[in-house]
Amino acid sequence: MSTTFSCVGCGKCCNDHHVPLTLSEARMWAADGGQLIVLVEAFLGNGLGLPAQQREHAERRSAAVRSGESDAYVAITFAAYNVGPCRNLDEDYLCRIYERRPLVCRIYPMEINPHIPLNITLKECPPESWEKGPDLIVGGELVDRELSELIQRSRQADRNDIQTKDAICALLGIRTTALKGDGFTAYLPDMNEFATVVDELTRQALPQWSSEWLFHVSGEDVAGQVLAAGAQVATDAPANYAFISLRTA
User: Highest taxon of the source (predicted)?
Assistant: First the structure.
């Protein structure tokens, strides 16, 4: 069984999507006058918040930190903040920065996370996108070698960037995370400050940060599990972030 794909240029994937960026892409986005959203999630050293089979991948793209008496692993995503059409779309829904578009845009419709299979029913591409074009997946395996290499580049950037992202967050006052699977904390940093911090960090040795992270959770049941593991739960109302819950009930 095979899956084919051919982009028809509908532009739906360029609307209302916060596109994950590498650190260098995030700095370029700032230089172009764009806004970033910072999405943060973490799991605890005892595995709370993470299926066991996903731990190796999750650890490799996370910063090892502390929360109270517990080890924690924080994943930080810098994403292009797009409410409505991407700022780089022209009137014909064509990308103005196509030759330097982000890795995630190049990889679409494939997933970066190896634990998330491609599900075409969850994509916004019209049916004709899947009716013709080159083979994308054959027998469950991605057959496009160039696309596979781009996915590996994106995963490696996640791993390479994470310590610098943690340092950037510390300088921006970002120190509250959500529990993986329970939600995300979302920040909209001042972009001039963001650019200044990134530039400062690229000119010096990366500092070591020891400040603790707090967990914002969706309810008392989750808070009890986090506290029982020795981690710290945020008790004050969010001052500089929003909490995006993933709970369905």
Answer: Bacteria
